[in-house]
């Protein structure tokens, strides 16, 4: 399964692509950051993020897209930009018929490090180890995007298998 992970942001939008299946070693395909200038109009910034994302979708043809779920912060401006970038990502994926999964920061941290309270350095260290990289991905937004993709490979596939099993069980019982 190939997963495109997105750590949404208006100034820096982390992007990472991971290949893997449950129980097998993961592999990093590519990572990077879509950057937009803070002085540009929001609409131009969102358009730039969409264009960058479309290029990644064309280049990597992922099976799914994993996006960090926007959570409430003290800075409403930051939350708005993050939510807007997240919406652009979800719309681009939906346009291509790709499944989109939202994962909370604590869910991603727990999946990658074993602790939902891990700090950014711990997440980056585990991403480096799990993907057998020579150095932690930089900037942190890219490491976070790879962590999202890893989380989805492990949790998303398991959830999909459970859903399929429940559906199969229910259809066998239906007369």
Automatic annotation (TrEMBL):
EC numbers: 3.1.21.10
Cofactors required: Mg(2+)
Major site of localization recorded for this protein: cytoplasm
UniProt cross-references to InterPro entries, sorted A to Z: RNaseH-like_sf (IPR012337), RNaseH_sf (IPR036397), X-over_junc_endoDNase_Mg_BS (IPR020563), X-over_junc_endoDNase_RuvC (IPR002176)
NAD is among the record's keywords: no
Catalysed reaction equations from the record: Endonucleolytic cleavage at a junction such as a reciprocal single-stranded crossover between two homologous DNA duplexes (Holliday junction)
Residues reported to bind Mg(2+) 2: 68
UniProt subcellular location: Cytoplasm
Keyword Magnesium in record: yes
One GO term of the biological process aspect: DNA repair
One cellular-component annotation, GO: Holliday junction resolvase complex
GO terms assigned for molecular function: crossover junction DNA endonuclease activity; DNA binding; magnesium ion binding
Cofactor note: Binds 2 Mg(2+) ion per subunit.
Keywords per UniProt: Cytoplasm, DNA damage, DNA recombination, DNA repair, DNA-binding, Endonuclease, Hydrolase, Magnesium, Metal-binding, Nuclease
Residues at which Mg(2+) 1 binds: 7, 141
Catalytic site: 7, 68, 141
Quaternary organization: Homodimer which binds Holliday junction (HJ) DNA. The HJ becomes 2-fold symmetrical on binding to RuvC with unstacked arms; it has a different conformation from HJ DNA in complex with RuvA. In the full resolvosome a probable DNA-RuvA(4)-RuvB(12)-RuvC(2) complex forms which resolves the HJ.
Summary of the function given for this chain in its UniProt record: The RuvA-RuvB-RuvC complex processes Holliday junction (HJ) DNA during genetic recombination and DNA repair. Endonuclease that resolves HJ intermediates. Cleaves cruciform DNA by making single-stranded nicks across the HJ at symmetrical positions within the homologous arms, yielding a 5'-phosphate and a 3'-hydroxyl group; requires a central core of homology in the junction. The consensus cleavage sequence is 5'-(A/T)TT(C/G)-3'. Cleavage occurs on the 3'-side of the TT dinucleotide at the point of strand exchange.
Family: Belongs to the RuvC family.
Name this polypeptide is given: Crossover junction endodeoxyribonuclease RuvC
Native organism: Solicola gregarius
Gene, per the UniProt record: ruvC
């Amino acid at each position: 399964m190939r997963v495109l992970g997105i750590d949404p942001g208006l100034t820096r939008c982390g992007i990472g692509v991971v290949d893997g299946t449950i129980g097998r070693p993961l592999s990093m395909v590519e990572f990077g950051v879509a950057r937009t200038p803070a002085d540009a109009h929001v609409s131009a910034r969102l358009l730039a993020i969409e264009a960058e994302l479309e290029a990644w979708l064309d280049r990597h043809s992922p099976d799914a897209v994993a996006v960090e779920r926007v959570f409430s912060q003290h800075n409403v401006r930051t939350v708005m930009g993050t939510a807007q970038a997240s919406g652009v990502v979800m719309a681009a994926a939906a346009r291509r018929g790709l499944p989109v999964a939202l994962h909370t920061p604590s869910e991603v941290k727990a999946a990658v490090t074993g602790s939902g309270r891990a700090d950014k350095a711990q997440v980056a260290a585990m991403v480096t180890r799990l993907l057998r990289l020579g150095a932690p991905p930089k900037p942190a937004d890219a490491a976070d995007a790879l962590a999202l993709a890893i989380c989805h490979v492990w949790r998303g596939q398991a959830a999909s298998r459970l859903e399929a099993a429940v559906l199969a069980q229910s259809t066998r019982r239906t007369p």
